[in-house]
Amino acid sequence: MSNDSPSSPKFGYLLPTRERIMAGSPETAALLKLAEHAEALGFDSVWVGDSLLARPRHEPLTLLASVAARTRRIELGTAVLLPALRNPVLLAHQVATLDRIAEGRLVLGVGIAADVPNVRDEFEAAGVPFEKRVGRMLEGLRLCRALWSGEPVDWDGRWRVRQGVLGPTPHRSPAGPPIWVGGSTRAGRERAAREFDGWFPTGPDAADWGERWREVRTIAAEVGRAPGSVAGAVYLTLAIDDDAAAGNARIDEYLERYYGTPASVLRKWQACFAGSEKAIADWLAGYAAAGAGHIVLRFVGDHHALLETVARIRPEVGRERPP
């Protein structure tokens, strides 16, 4: 699978950490092999999700350190990390070390977490007030960035730091790894445009995604950010099946097991698709045409087979970027 054309979006792959836990198979060897397979097929990135207790899975930064040691080219990302659950001084240290292991291949995808009962319980278990999660995330990541500079940091906010110096700094000092933020709401888009390096939602459909992406770019320009300073990405769920109805039924069952929430609710904010290889290629091409520079895929089905299928259809997804 080649990505030589500058007009083609990058393709990423979400490792099935949650699925492995649900299946009672927590061993990591199979996950590492999937990451290696994705790299061998030419995927541009591999991603890991995050949850403590709400949706049990492998801890993402630890697992990505192993992936970094087993790969050489592929980018590594979190889809998405919940920074509000973590002390930012410790998080800055962990991320800096991981970026050193990965030699600058890390992308930190972050989010504020969905407002559902089990996620609220997760925050309570971690001793973090759920209602303060947005402010904690924003301030915590600003503190991380300050520490990544390697210069002495004084900080007097939710956390207090006195002449704190972090070592090691990330591979890409002083800025650290790019931080992409999820969220399809107006507030989420404004956060992406004003403060982050990328916008990384779980939908909506391609036409709406494109409209909202134009809004992100407009806001970024209004606040004086340079063109191209914010990446446009999207996280999509797919199943390949010539019987679209059967494929969508499998996606619905998968979503309900994964989240414990009706699929009809989840599909309102998560873009999902089932169909033939040709239909999938056309669906993905819609996001490419709308300006998505990085498409991250979560698979429902045999992951090795789906990796090979997407590698095969990828040339059909290329497009010319809008000006």
Summarize the structure.
Helix content is 43%, strand content 16%. It is an alpha/beta fold and 323 residues long. The chain starts with 9 loop residues before the first strand and ends in a 10-residue tail after the last helix.
How are the secondary structure elements laid out?
Blueprint: E1 10-14, H1 17-22, H2 29-40, E2 45-48, H3 60-70, E3 75-78, H4 88-101, E4 106-110, H5 117-125, H6 133-148, E5 153-156, E6 160-164, E7 179-181, H7 186-195, E8 198-199, H8 206-222, E9 231-240, H9 244-259, H10 263-266, E10 272-275, H11 277-290, E11 294-299, H12 303-313
Parallel strand pairs: 1-2, 1-11, 2-3, 3-4, 4-7, 7-8, 8-9, 9-10, 9-11
Antiparallel strand pairs: 5-6
Helix pairs in contact: 3-4, 4-6, 7-8, 8-11
How many domains? The number is 1
Poorly predicted segments: 1-6, 319-323
What percentage of residues falls in helices of 4 or more residues?
40-55%
Element string (H = helix, E = strand): EHHEHEHEHHEEEHEHEHHEHEH
- What is the strand tally? 11
> In what range is the share of β-strand residues?
15-25%
Backbone CA Rg = 19 Å
Structural class: alpha/beta
Largest sheet: 8 strands, parallel, barrel
Identify the CATH homologous superfamily.
Answer: Luciferase-like domain
What CATH architecture do you see? Alpha-Beta Barrel
Q: Note the quaternary state here.
A: single chain
Shape: globular
Query: Class, according to the CATH hierarchy?
Result: Alpha Beta
Mean pLDDT comes to 95
Order of strands, widest sheet: 1-2-3-4-7-8-9-11
Count of DSSP-assigned helices? 12
CATH topology: TIM Barrel
Distance between the termini: 26 Å
